[in-house]
């Protein structure tokens, strides 16, 4: 992909983000932060590529540490979001 | 063997060049993952759809990870599995055990991890550019990739060190009071310039030293930026760092030409930016003034001794219980003090007891109540307050005129009428609850001495209809509950 194609995706995604986030109810702003935290750990993709390659042992170990850190976030972020969301209940009538 | 000059002319091995031809199915998988992340955020538009949204998020992450693993030759699968298991295990246990009142610290800590991971990925890409397919025909790192890398590394480093400070302040390892260095704006400006110069140097020459200098300076400025910001401005800071972690991921996505990372980075980046904006608007302060820091330091230093003593009415738990029982409608306004005292469960019990007496109980939440966006909502949800009893500022503010009791627990600045009337007040223009219109105001506060974050006195304390309940919030509510049950 050339740079301009990637830039187009990025700019359009910013607009999508803008409208989607404004529609999030303020009561769920804390879960929103937790889940954005979890999904921004998609950076694990980069960490996996680094740790999978055989080119440089230093890069491999740096990548592995990054994989571990991002995994804390992925599992922790989604689990804590699920835990919070499970608490939001309607009135039982 | 060819002499080195001729090696360069021949270019790198063919395999490294062909990685650029991305398999369309792989690109498609990352796209699906990106769309799933959008759906995850979309689900949060209501509590009913939010749980499904979270599942979309998990599915998106699974797709991204599996796609990466199956499309790369993996030289070290056991190590990768071990790293994921260790990290994942730690994350899962923390997520299960953490107290809901500690959520702001946890989010700050998680932000720091994303930041550090971004830094490490950038370092790895710098050490082994061939693995990331960002090598040009001369064997150097592509010019665009150099900029993206150094940008991602710098934003990641700022996110990391800033979040560490935010964590320390929220967790009480560090004083929440703003710490002001002399000439800090000048120092910060110099560091930013330094980052720009070395980033330019790295782009033009690909010198390793420039890369490391940018990283070091970025770590430093992250610390310096957050240190002068006070505890109650943390909602803005945490949202801002949330935004940064997104931009860092997006920058690395550019380096890796990865749709999932770019889409996610854009989503998270705009999410954090919007939350910061909402928080600033709710305090009627500009983003710049929050980031410049030092808020509240001047006011509390000046207003301490010279304050006149004004008469106020002090009440007991029994008085409060009696009046609450007589009321028809009660609006509860929780603030950070409720979180500190862990009073949310006692508060819900009080609500239940009052409802049994036929009193209508509603909860009113200010956007900046607590230490992060939505902090109070989560605590009330934890205490099993139904979310349809909880209202936002603009939805409930007109109801105070008809309310019998405004019950303020651990909040202060968000009910201060000075925000509406006193142009010299540091909180002037901030939207506040019109509690002075309620027939009775009950104010739970530990003592008369303490002032809110803004360091200003609150006229509501001295109104004829105000009853000051001076005690620890949890103890006071428990005593009220005892009196209500009798």
Q: How far do the termini of chain A sit from each other?
A: 55 Å
Shape of chain B: elongated
- State the low-pLDDT regions of chain B, or none: 4-20, 298-306
Ends of chain B: how far apart? 95 Å
Commentary on this structure:
The complex is a heterodimer of chains A (93) and B (486). Chain A is mostly helical and 93 residues long. Chain A is built from four helices and no strands. Chain A is flat, with a radius of gyration of 18 Å. Chain B is built from 20 helices and six strands. A six-stranded parallel beta sheet of chain B has the order 3-2-1-4-5-6. The longest helix of chain B is centred in the N-terminal third of the chain and has 29 residues, at 143-171. The model of chain B is unreliable at 4-20 and 298-306 (pLDDT under 50). Classes of the chains: A mainly alpha (93), B alpha/beta (486). The interface between A and B is large, with 82 and 118 residues.
